[in-house]
Amino acid sequence: MGSGTKQLVQFAPEATVGTTPSPFARTTLPFTSCSINANANKTASNTIKDSRIASGQYITGVDYAGDIETEFQYGAYDTLLECVAFNPWTANVLTFGGTTRKTLSVLRGFTDNNDYHTFSGLHANQFKLTVPENGLITATFSFMGMGRAKATAAPAGTITSAMSSPLMSSVSIGDILIDGAVIAGACITQFDFTWDNSMQVQRCLGKGLNIGAILEMVAGGTGNFTVAWSQNTSLLYEKQFLNIPIALSIPMADSDGNKYVLALPKVQVTAPLPSSGNSEITSSQFAYTVADVAPTLTRMPVAVGGGS
User: Fold this and answer.
1) Where on the tree of life does the source sit, at the highest rank (predicted)?
2) In which domain, by residue range, is 26 found?
3) DSSP string computed for 230-255
4) Closest listed residue to residue 93, CA positions, set 82, 80, 107, 105
5) Is 24 strand, coil or helix?
6) What per-residue confidence (pLDDT) applies to 304?
7) Partner residues linked to 16 by β-bridges
8) Do the domain assignments include residue 308?
């Protein structure tokens, strides 16, 4: 028997890919759900014996993967975002699609049952940021890992408490810029952004149930935004037929004044004409794909103190 409030997720960056730091100094992560798990791959035997009873299944591998779902807040997920981007923060700017691999060891704990599972070599395969019309901004991090270790006691190591910055919501969004300007009549009511590193697992004989390597392939960014229909929205709609890209800039600020700005310098859009009922607001959902130029996320911490 266990309580959902007795779950924990803690993480630490790895100095060596796939090796959990020792001691395991780690940070507690605020989350809403975590599905990181080990899934055994089994193959049924086709051996014919002197019986009609099937020979059963044999373990032929294990996959380590899952999602961490969160309610977005400033600062709490900056290390995870480095894993997604394959780049470090540089002068408070994170550029997606880099080549600097950063992996994590993640501890899943069920403290009322003294049950602890450490997943090592976790690579961030996908990231999705969702801004609803009315609600909290959410972020989902999808991981692929290389191994797991089980214990009945928490690993040794200092623990840093979870951050408790104010959550961001739909009212945290500032003026969304299209090609550097606020477009009159183009009221955006929903936005999401997905980054996919297209990771692939490499299995090596001799590794047992552990993974040999996880390799990144072509990186891609996609997403959607819903726009109220207007003459200017119609002009935006026409761009898809000329293959004219647009730039998007999405600012997000919490109630303390901390801010992120997601910049998508070049995206190609597709959209249908609106089809609304007689009691609905006329709008259209635009799908976009990042092209050629890497997106960036800029963080702007609120100035503390100061002087005259």
Assistant:
1) Bacteria
2) 4-40+63-300
3) -HHHHHHHHHHHHT--EEEEEEEE-T
4) 82
5) coil
6) 76
7) none
8) no
CB 12 within 8 A of CB 25: yes
For position 281, what pLDDT does the model report? 84
- The string of pLDDT tens digits covering residues 124-171 is 999 999 999 999 999 999 999 999 999 999 999 999 999 989 999 999
Residue 254 lies in a domain: yes
The verdict on residue 128 lying in a domain is: yes
pLDDT score at 193: 99
Q: Of 95, 155, 110, give the one whose Cα is nearest residue 5.
A: 110
Please indicate, yes or no, if residue 24 is contained in any of the structural domains: yes
Q: What is the rounded distance in angstroms from the CA atom of residue 96 to the CA atom of residue 90?
A: 12
Contact 15, 25 (CB under 8 A): no
| Amino acid identity at 79 | T
Cβ contact 65:36 at 8 Å: yes
Q: How many residues does the chain have?
A: 308
Domain tally, the chain: 1
* Nearest in space to 109 (alpha carbons), one of 227, 199, 2: 2
Tell me which residues of the chain have a pLDDT lower than 50.
Answer: 307-308
Q: How confident is the model at residue 2, as a pLDDT? A: 65
Contacts of 280 (CB under 8 A, 6+ apart): none
In angstroms, the first-to-last Cα distance of the chain is 58
pTM of model > 0.70:
yes
Question: Is 116 within 8 Å of 152 (Cβ atoms)?
Answer: yes
